Amino acid sequence: MQQTHLSTRGVAHMKIKPISFTLVTISLAALFGCSGSPPASKGSWGYVDRTGKVVIPAQFAEGRDFADGMAAVKIKDNWGYIDRTGKVVITPQFAAGRRFADGMAAVKIQGG
Description:
The protein is mainly β.
């Protein structure tokens, strides 16, 4: 149970019981048994559907959420865009890439 105490300065202090937890990380490929997909390097990103089935194998340095049918992904040092099948539709060439909205996405040009 939480108890709140008011200090002489008018600041509320709460006594909260500490909670400990363990964070476990695992490879998506190992979790979902994707033996037919290319091996994922440590820290690679891929995509799963709502049932947890891997639909785009982990192969990207980073990945963003899909919007307007595309997702920004980082391949090596550059950002580009893939479609829902995992096909690169905008070649990785940007320093940064944001989500699409109404057919456009903000990108940072290399060296800019």
